Amino acid sequence: MLTVNIKALEEYLSSVYGKQVKVLSINPLGEIECHEGLKEFGYGVPYLVKYEVNGERKGVVLETMKPDHFGHEEFSDRAQALLWAHSAFNKLPKHVRSVDVGAFTVSGTLKSLGDCKELFILVEKVEGEEYWKDLERIKREKVVKEVDVERCRALANYIAEIHSIKMNAPELYIRRIRELIGHGECIMGLIDNYPLNLDFTSEEELMRIELKSVKWRWKLKGKTHRLSVVHGDFHPWNVLFKGNDFTLLDRSRGEYGEPADDVAAMTINYLFFSLQASGRLEGAFETLYYKFLNSYLTRTRDEELFSVIQPFYAWRGLVIASPMWYPKLPYDVRRKIFNFILNVLDEECFDPKRVNSYIKY
To answer: What pTM does this model have?
Structure first.
């Protein structure tokens, strides 16, 4: 429940109209009027607010959205829907008008967002070097240093720790798997942004990846016990190292998800840089690949990981093979990534020891 002071509501409405507003009553639609100084608002319940401004009596309906399992689980989902509603209602003839879109604050006040054009976020400035620069150095020098092993182990241990925090919310896990396939930032969205007439793949092959991925959705739907705290975009461009300590950037797509997401996002980059260096997983990057997995598995004992990671590797493979993100990759590297995607999607149990067989034509 949200508790709102009448005075706070009057101040909010006054800011919307630019004139002094006096609230006369608040009550759920269809119920008797209430003149209390403090009112509890139930999520998803519309409230009729009657007020006076410039001697004229008016009424508005104040609505919030109730969390549900149709894409509105998160606060950000509901914010998106309400911001859209405010921008769209007044563009359609004969539609009820939206006066404003606002927010309840933690202190019980109300804040107007109705005239915003874009939202923004401010984050702290942190010091550190992006982790991908380490991988570029290793690709160039073909040597793995002790600091590289320690950083790899630190990253694996970190996600093992956050993945130990579970959530019992089956519908949310199912949503996360659904989004893996159909979200604009995930498998289908990436495929839709591949240009036509590419030399390393075809529309027919991209369609095969989509179809194989949909089958994986049905394999994973029942594994709701795996829902865990995740980062959601755990790759070398989102890690800043300072010594062996690090800071993460740009957490994405929800607080909870499938742990295989984070594992795939990082480990596929060891393969990616190794393919650029030598055309296969070997040497320094092979060391890091297995160090990461072994460290993670030692902490989590998650052998089931290899029965669920396949579509996450497909998604991350589509990212690193994309001409949009990596326009200068050689044909051979892109082709081997696509071989990896297709072969891994056919595996009931992913075998880390067979990575080089998965990249073959």
So the answer is: 0.86
